[in-house]
UniProtKB/TrEMBL annotation:
Keyword RNA-binding in annotation: no
Annotated segments matching region Disordered: 38-61
Xref: InterPro entries: Amidohydro_3 (IPR013108), Metal-dep_hydrolase_composite (IPR011059), Metal_Hydrolase (IPR032466), Metallo-hydrolase_Enzymes (IPR052349)
UniProt name for this protein: Amidohydrolase family protein
Keyword Transmembrane set for record: no
Domain Amidohydrolase: 95-424
Molecular-function annotations in GO: deaminase activity; hydrolase activity, acting on carbon-nitrogen (but not peptide) bonds, in cyclic amidines; metal ion binding
Domain of life: Bacteria
Keywords: Hydrolase, Metal-binding
Species name: Paenibacillus lycopersici
Amino acid sequence: MKTSSRSLRIVNAALPLREERALFTLSAEDGVWTAVERQEGATVSSPETTPLDGWSGEMPPAGNSLRLDAGGLAVLPAFVDAHMHLDKAFSLPKVGNVTGTLEEAVRSYAAAVPNFSKDELKARMMRAALQAISYGSTTLRTHLDFHVRHGREVAMRTIEAALEVKEALAPYATIQLFPMLPYFDLTEEALDTAAEALRMGVTGLGGAPHLSPEPEPDIDRVFGLAERYGCPIDLHADESDNPSVRTAAYIARKTLDYGWSGRVTAGHLCSLAAMADEDAQPIIALLAEAGVGAVTLPGANLYLQGRHDRFPVRRGVTRVKELLAAGVQLAAASDNIHDPFHPFGRGDLLLIGLVTAYAAHMGSPADIREALRMITTYPAAVVGVRGGIEPGLDADFVVLDAATPEELLTMLPERRWVWRRGRCLRAPAPRAEWSGCALRAYWADACERVSFREERG
Ligand SMILES: [Zn+2]
């Protein structure tokens, strides 16, 4: 969407993805970054500059420029949620999971699918997508259930609902749709229905071939159909504690055969964490060589994996640091939200960044920057959008009420300004003061004395 001629300038912005703790001036024209300039110290606000904190979020009329003073707040590229299940989100009140296992979640949800109306599916997707956008994600990739065995109509209900949500939210977010091909009985009829979904406008093909009794021929069929329609592939891969489950290696070899670097994504990769180093390393090397994008889903994996272990209990999260070190593009994403697969989550990638940092032992300044890249620039590369704060890229960004990378993951600030193509989608109310309670007298003093900002110097 073109935001008619409009210039934006933000002074005193902190850029937590950069190692240098300086302040920057950011400029954008018509929703595209034009300059990122390092400042020598803080810029003194001029009368035509509005403090961001307290600004209403209202954009000036076309042709006018907007100058904002970020006051040292953190500016990140907009979040890219590379792996969601919008259609399942918020279904927990209807579909429970007593054992908390992946097996029960898959079984119960599949049985419930025929009862969901298109309206209900659409309402849940809308809520989940809007919530994700409100936290700062402007690109969402969602997998979609595609239960052809319940009949074409049931499978297409989800596809139609998703296409309508994608279109309705197009001014605010890019939504990519990946129907999950059945992992059993992948018949010609199922492939024809998937082809129809592609013609209707879904983005690519998904699936969970490690669940199939014969994963390799199923992966072959998915690649064959993707070739026919020139679409990307995003597979759930090896969401299992069983170290002998290794479809990732086959997916990587197929990607090399087809020369599809950057076009194939493998999510979960849990079994990599269950196998010995000498078994995992060649698979990681193969993923890197093939240019397969990877996604870790630490919330759902910590919750679902290890359910059949007695202590010591495996935690299921893939080898995050090893994948990063090998040069694999690795995203951290939401996966399921408040459904039988994962009762928690809220579509907030900053929270997922924190869970990733916990799960993968990432706490040094360099690690925290990596965790933040795993929810911004790395997933952008995985899903094929250009994300970052650099001249020439879309001005999709989020300003957060925090000054440092450490403060971002410590405070998970609720107050965020979410921007898409140079237009503000969400501005928070002015900073709430403590009022009317016994601790009020201490609050301002405590914040002033113990601040995350002192370190900047
Ligand atoms: Zn998933």
